[in-house]
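hey so u asked for the seq, here:
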Amino acid sequence: MHTNRRATAIAGALVILGMVAGALSVVPAVDEPRRLALISAHEGQVIVGAVAQSIMIPAYVGFALYLYPLLRAENEALSLGFVGFRLIAATFHLIGVIMLPLFLVLGQELTQAGAAAASGIEVVGELLRTARDLVNHVALIFSLSLGDLLLFRILWRSRSVPRWLSGWGFLAIAAAVSASFLVLLRLTDVVTPLYLAMNAPLALQTFVFAVWLTAKGFAANPRHRPRSP
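ran it, structure tokens below
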């Protein structure tokens, strides 16, 4: 297989791996109203979520690194920005992973605490849940979206993938960023149908883009083809 095709195929496979890990990283117990009182009974769910989110880090960074040599040929500055934002997103992923075991610690403290201390622990738990939402659904989405805007800007100009796919990416990113702003302003929550619906176009576009990379890769750029005599 040609080197470029192999790179795009691996990049697409890494995106699909990241999406599967992202689905497994959801921890419903953390979003329950009485999360700390119930969290100890869902310790396995928390551990699976932390491991799955850990897998997303090399998957999403690897995606950028495999595409970087191909993107650099089109625009080195934008491709460096794309990789840079992916590394920033990886940092937020790591913070999200670290936060999950803290819910287990607070849950254990709650079971051992008296009635007077329980309310204070519940407040800390709510603050931790809010902080995790801001990391995973605001800071992380912003950094990924800024990087992907640079990516699709390169692909739009080079026509390495069909322009309908790049254009879909622009629109889907705008919807996802808008949803994150609503979370930041406390106008919606990450488990509401509105938030999920606003992120659905990006999830579908990401899957289609990954399948396209795996199956077809990048088209040859006409500007880079040798001219006929």
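The two ends are 29 Å apart (CA to CA). Helices lie at 3-24, 35-39, 43-72, 76-112, 115-158, 163-184, 193-215.
lmk if thats what u needed
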